[in-house]
Design a protein that fits this description.
Elements: H1 5-11, H2 13-31, H3 34-39, E1 42-47, H4 50-65, E2 70-74, H5 75-82, E3 94-99, H6 106-117, E4 121-126, H7 132-135, E5 139-142, H8 161-181, H9 186-220, E6 226-231, H10 234-250, E7 253-258, H11 259-264, E8 275-279, H12 286-298, E9 302-308, E10 321-325, H13 335-353, H14 375-378
Amino acid sequence: MERSPLHQQVDTLPDLLREMIDGLVRHARAIFPSPVCHQIERVFITGCGDSHHAALNAELAFEQLAGLPCEPQTAMQFSRYGASFMPDTGRVSNLLLGISVSGQVSRTIEAVDLGRKAGALIVALTGNKKAPLASVSDAVLETAVPPLPDELSGLIVPGTRSYFASQLALYILAIHLGQERGTLTKTLANQLRHELAALADVIEETIASCDTLTRQAAQLWLDADTFLYCGSGPNFGTALFGAAKLLESSGDTAVAQDMEEWAHLQYFARQVTTPTFLISAGQRDVDRATEIAVAARTIGRRLAFITPFDSPLAQEVEDDIFFPLDDSVRECFSPLVTSIPLILFAGYRSQLLNEPYFRAFGGGRNVEGGGGISRIRTSHQITEIKA
């Protein structure tokens, strides 16, 4: 099959990581001097869509590496509910990271503005430092991605590069805070940065090893009309992201679920052959993921495993689809790798169905009359914190 625009963007991800990591490390140091880092007591992260998925994926990194409690919330949840109950422990003790690639998403701007009024230190992660999000923030960590080759520029493609840039920036911030606060030694912090940089090669290898497998899976499951994505911890966000890429690419019904919650809910679904992706870094969640695999196969689900070669979950693969991952990737960084097969699969599904990305913004999503997707950037914003 011809390499689609989405696949071509996936192919650029290793070089994107290589190009961006050093600049993000420098910017993190500039934005967060040591005295500020020591005053932070907790981290909140907010955003919409892929930005929220990146936030969920970064929670473990902030808690494990920076030693800080971290609470990712959708922008709606934070602005209309969370900001009202932010702990009143003094300026800078609460760090709010607001993520928006465009910097123009109304709900994220609203969340950040209300967080600032509640006394939080606000740092925007955005590709547009002149956007409204930046104007209501104390500092900006710019996540603008380098320009694409001419043949790819100007194409509207489901977000991949921007998502990776946001994810990488969050990991860099977690490492920096950990080093400055003393939960990481300088040696360990540098080792973690080197691990992130080395993921460029791992991502390259994952694209190469999974590309044909994802095309075969898309062909094998061409009859399906509903897809389920399961993950836990840092890879619950990966499950949401994978479902989002399928929705954006082919318009299929795609649902993400926490691995444990599958046993309480989707287990009872009447459609027994639903293709189900089980995503695990093979660490904290692996025993439960293994049990879920056995249960899902027993009741007839079609399974795809995304897990390292040496994971106990990989031992459960029978006549299922298996997207093997490098076994050296740290769990808190794993979303940068586990997401790769999911994007590739979405691209091939779209090609096989001959579906335009975002359904060509049809189906009630055109912008005429101020409706549809345009309201994401023009939605009414509240300016006062709810009591």
